[in-house]
Every structure is written in C-alpha cells, then in structure tokens.
From TrEMBL:
Keyword Membrane: yes
Protein name from the UniProt record: RagB/SusD family nutrient uptake outer membrane protein
Main subcellular localisation: membrane
Cellular localisation: Cell outer membrane
Domain SusD-like N-terminal per the UniProt entry, residue ranges: 29-212
All residue ranges annotated as the RagB/SusD domain in the record: 385-538
A Pfam family that the UniProt record links to this protein: SusD_RagB
Keyword Signal (UniProt): yes
Ranges that cross the membrane: none
Superkingdom of origin organism: Bacteria
Amino acid sequence: MKTNIRLLFTACAAALVTGCTNLDVDVESQYTEYPTNEIAVEAKMADVYYQMRDVFGRRYMEAQALSSDEYTAVSYGGGWYDSGAYAHPSLHNYTYEDATIDWMGQLTSGITKANKIIIELGSNEAGATVAPARAMRAFFHFILMDCWGDAPILDHAMAEGETIDRSPRADVARFIESELKEIIPQLTDEVNANTYGKPTKWMAEALLAKIYINWPVYTAASVDLYDAATAKNEKLNDCIALCDDIIKSGKFNLGSMSYSKKFGPDNGSHVEDFIYVMPYDTYTAQGMQYGRSRCWKDIKSCAKSYFGMKLSQSGGGYITMTPEFASLFNLEGDQRNNCVIGGTVHVYDPKTYLPTDEIAVDKNGNPIVLTKEITLVKEGDIELGVGDNINGYSQGYRSVKFFVIDDDFKNGRNQSNDLPIFRYADILLTKAEAIVRGGSATNGDTAMSLFNEIRSYVTAPTIDHTPSLQELLDERGREFLDENWRRNDMIRFGTFESEFFPHYKGFPTANFDKTRRIFPLHKDIMNTNPNWKQNPGY
C-alpha cells in the first residue's frame, strides 16, 4: 500500500468535512489569524485537494463513461436499474433526478473551501502561498463548465444571503484561462512524492492545454452550435506551447513499466507518466470503486476469479463495454489489449496484472466466455435488461485496467489504484492533434512522430503517415480507457451524436439532440438555487 498517503491522511483526517450543495455558504474565517503551523495549513489544503475523491471514484466516472461510446449500463432482472440512473446516460436520455449527475454541489463546495483558504492566507496577493488553492478552484470550475455549460464564477467570498447567477460558458473558460496564466509561474515545478496528487505548475499547464484544445467547444454561442467540421481554434499554438513546456521539462516520460502496471493497486508517484492524479488507498483514502461496476456479475461465486484469486465481495457488473469501443482493441502486440477481457476469459497474474494461459471458469467449472455483442431481453419497463443468469452476465467485454485484488476489494470494494487525471501520454497526443488541426509543428516533432511515441511504448504497430483525426480519436480511446476523457473527446471530434450501443436511432428512448452534450442541473441544485434556469433541452 501507499504508506506516504496513509500518513498524510492520518494527519489530516480531522479536517475532512462533508461537502454541501448550497452556494450561499458563509466563508467567513473562524480564525482571527490563520494558523501558521505547516500541518494545519496542509490539512486545510488537503480538504480542497481531495474534495472530489468520492465523486471521481464513482459518480463522475459513471456520468462520463456511460454517456460516451466506451460503456453502457445493463440490468440483471431489474438489479442495478435504479430508476434508469445508469441507462439514461447510455441513451443520452438524462433526467434531472439521475444519481449519476447529483454531484455538482461537491464542486461548488470545493470552490467555497478554496476561496476560504485564499482569503485566510492573504487573497490573490499572497502569490505562491495561495496558488495551489487557486489551481484547484480553476480545476473545479473547469469540470463545472465541461459538464453543465454555463456555470457560476465563484471567485470571491459570498456575503450572507448573496445569490449568484451562472455565467456564459465562454466567460467561465476565459476566467479559468486568466487564473491559470497568472498562477502557473507561482506554482511549484517539483515532481516528487510530496507533490503527488497536488496541483503543480505542470498540472495547471495540462489543464490549460485541455481547455485550449477544446476552445471552440467551450466558446461556442451555445453547446448545440459547436460544429466539429467547421470550428476554428485560435488557441492551437498556445496549446502546443504548453505541451512543449511540459515535454521539455524532462519531469515526465511514458515510463519503462508495462502499460498494465501503471494502473494497478501499487501504482503511485513512481509512475513517470502521471502529471496529476487522485490518490486512493483502501484504508486511508477510500472511494475508488471501478472494479465493482466492471466485474463479471457472478465473480464472487468463482473458486478463483479471473483476477487470480478468490474475491470475498460480489461484483455489481452493471457497466459493460460497447461493441463499438471493444473493437478498438485490435492492434497486434498492443499491451493495452491486456486491459480488456472478451471471448474466452483467462486468469490474470495478480503480480504482473497480465493474462496467463489458465482459463477462468464459473462456479460450475465452465469457461467464462464474454460476447462482444450485447443482446437485450424484455424485463418489464427496464430499458437495458440482459437477464439475471450466466448468459446475461456474459454480455459485453469488460475492463481490468484498474486491477482488483481481494485485500482491497474485501474492504468495502475500495481499491488502492490511483486515478490519473492528466498524463504525459495525453500531452503527446494533444500536441499531435493540435498540429493536425492546423497548429505549428515545433521542436522537430510531427503529428506522426508524437503518435508513434505512444504506439511504440505499448508495442503496437507504428504508422507511416500523418494521423487523421479519426485515427487520433481511436488512439485516444485505446490509451485513455477508463480515464474519463471519452465524452470530452467525442464532443470535440463531433462523434457524440453518433450511433453506438444502445444509442441507436431505432432505440425508442435514445436521444440525439445536441443539447445532450451537457447534463441537466440536478433537482437538488435547482431547489437550492431557484434563480437558475434548467439547461436547454431538459
């Protein structure tokens, strides 16, 4: 396990509090003077750094993955239907009551906490002292505008009774840009165990590069008016400059370990590819539960699971890969193929996280065989039922990227796999994309050379031409499986309204309206902020 994280959270546990959804939170300081004790300051900062841990560990993932072509939700005899909370994103048929989008309040609470620290430490004039809190405030605003479009700009302590309207998405994007450009020189450029999971100069630059590559999306007059085929991006060279700064820093690389090892339960600050992560630990930093949703449904009954050990907890198994996305993992020799199980399933080595020659069997000793295609069955009014039996459990390929071990899984299914948010691999592919879209090639890099850096480190076939946008989108799908960028990518590349299981035009409740590029405001947010209007189309 990650000893350094456990020690940090032991020191900071008393400071962690539950977030709220009310924007009218009094952020007056409870201190006459802010305590200068380093541990007290670190505890306050940690409360902001890890504000989204629970959300990233489940609900944020569900909202991003299930609304993209990466995954769909299925129900077993009504189990895991939950009033359609998981089926609705898969069909772009969200409602304002869905549990998968009930976490906006965690973001606004995190911003409120960041503002409190900024004020107590001397406001923006405090420079490097408050720069980490400002970076997190910018990051939270980014998620708000990416997921909900127009968003409140919460850049000050709100007075008692003050209300705030949502600002146009483009204004929010420009606010974040301004914040990041101001604080990037003030943030630490150190990369070590002490800065792991915290905002650094490189995290802020990666975030700004992400905003710049999506600039036409975020600055469109409305979400439905962005057109990938005609959009012009004025920020491409700015995006490339940020990527170059990260590349030239020498602080990161694609790493010498296998692809699978980057994402195992023993990953951490030694992974050179990680620019910014959310750290997890089964005891001291809980919330990571990807395995629960992606496991084969009947995995607990297996004498030996395909993870190479008996699991003491059941798998929910309600998230399964779409046939279209599973088909991406077809490159000969590609290490990333090992992260996807389909067809006849093999047992994995729990030390290397790689498949062995041993075939995984169910409780009756029969081989576990997963089908790429998903066959739905009629289950009353349930939209995505597959049947509560072995046949139903075996619909769709599964991911084992965030590998499960029972020592973690038995502890409430809380895994110790750290979740990367920004990676060096993303910087390389972002620069390649910016060049293909019309940006200037720099430092001898070409879109092909950058693309082939990714292909080479995962031992996949290289290419001999400039990658097309479709090739870049496909490669991003392979490289960033399970990392919550697929929805963001599909919107930018213009494929979010495409057909993919079960988001087919013949499916009665599938929605293809472009307003679905953002989520509806949850009913709790609407109740708390009655001056806000629901997003168009909902």
